[in-house]
UniProtKB/TrEMBL annotation:
NCBIfam families xrefs: 1-PFK, pfkB
Name of the molecule in the record: 1-phosphofructokinase
EC numbers for this chain: 2.7.1.56
Organism: Streptomyces typhae
Any GO BP: small molecule metabolic process
Domain Carbohydrate kinase PfkB as annotated: residue spans: 17-290
Chain spans, region Disordered: 288-314
């Protein structure tokens, strides 16, 4: 069972449009509504693969009730922590060329009592989890050290932790030695405080995060592929993608694929890349099922192309 923690979940509405013309009336050609937040997306991808998952998250107001209902409809177990504020609602606008415009609401401010209740809820279920995926930004009211506290408590209970966050929250948690951290190129550059222009730069940055406490680093490099740097060495994999429809949740799908495949080594990296590549070819924040995956499109190597320039330097 994979348990996910989403401190700042959302109700996500995605609209597909022919073009986004500022100041004009734009008619959508497609729309969908999904429960959102990085940990929620991981649970959705895990459930789509037929693996049991439990989502722990603070929920409030009518949007929160709708998030819980949508998760249940997707076969996801939910452990809601009631909060006084309303769960946020986000909007994404997707254009045919893959350009995505997102408007993310700030979300509620959690009280100290609600923060502690969220930690307690994770602890209550941690003994039954093969992995605990802690994902996303922290809502107002939670200090940057909140994830570090969560990692420490879960490790004390014997659980393995995958952490997907950024900024001060990521840096604070490294001291507690999360089992894997999953930054994208921009987050990786922010964590080490310098730009990344090549795959080699990303490898060096990932090694620095390991030196600061992370046991493994799974780094998404967008269209260039993904890196896994751990005690067993450095591995690189990429996949062919014909059409990009939406990259919402693609990184979360990658993390789900990595954990489903055991959470370590080249096999798990290949699963992460296959899940991410499948996700970007689906509309909105739809998560891939096994039928959507193309494992044969994934190419993995230990011969890292260190000099390859990143398509999108960070």
């Amino acid at each position: 069972m994979i348990l996910t923690v989403t401190p700042n979940p959302s109700l996500d509405r995605t609209y597909e449009v022919p073009a986004l013309d500022r100041g004009e009336v734009v008619r959508a050609t497609g729309e969908r509504m999904d429960p959102g937040g990085k940990g929620v997306n991981v649970s959705r991808a895990v459930a789509a693969a037929g693996v049991r998952t439990l989502a722990v998250l603070p929920l409030g107001g009518a949007p929160g009730a709708l998030v819980a209902r949508l998760l249940h409809e997707q076969g996801i177990e939910v452990s809601p922590v009631p909060v006084s504020g309303r769960t946020r609602s986000n909007i994404a606008v997707a254009e045919p060329d893959g350009t995505l415009t997102k408007i993310n609401a700030p979300g509620p401010e959690l009280t100290p009592a609600e923060s502690e209740s969220l930690l307690d809820a994770v602890g209550a279920h941690s003994a039954h989890a093969d992995w605990i995926a802690c994902c996303g930004s922290l809502p107002r009211g939670l200090a940057p050290s909140w994830y570090a506290e969560l990692v420490a408590r879960c490790h004390a209970a014997g659980a393995r932790i995958a952490l997907d966050t950024s900024g001060p929250a990521l840096l604070a948690a490294l001291a507690e030695r999360p089992d894997v951290v999953k930054p994208n190129a921009e987050e990786l550059a922010g964590a080490v405080g310098r730009p990344l222009a090549t795959v080699g730069d990303a490898v060096e940055a990932a090694e620095e995060l390991r030196a600061r406490g992370a046991r493994a680093v799974l780094a998404s490099l967008g269209a260039d592929g993904q890196l896994l740097v751990d005690a067993g060495g450095t591995h690189f994999a990429s996949a062919r993608v014909d059409v990009v429809r939406s990259n919402v949740g693609a990184g979360d799908s990658s993390l789900a694929g990595f954990l489903i495949a055991g959470g370590s080594g080249p096999r798990a990296l290949a699963s992460a890349v296959a899940h991410g590549a499948a996700a970007v070819q689906l509309p909105g924040s739809a998560m891939p099922t096994p039928a959507d995956l193309s494992p044969d499109a994934v190419t993995g190597t230990t011969g890292i192309p260190l000099d390859r320039p990143l398509t999108e330097p960070a």
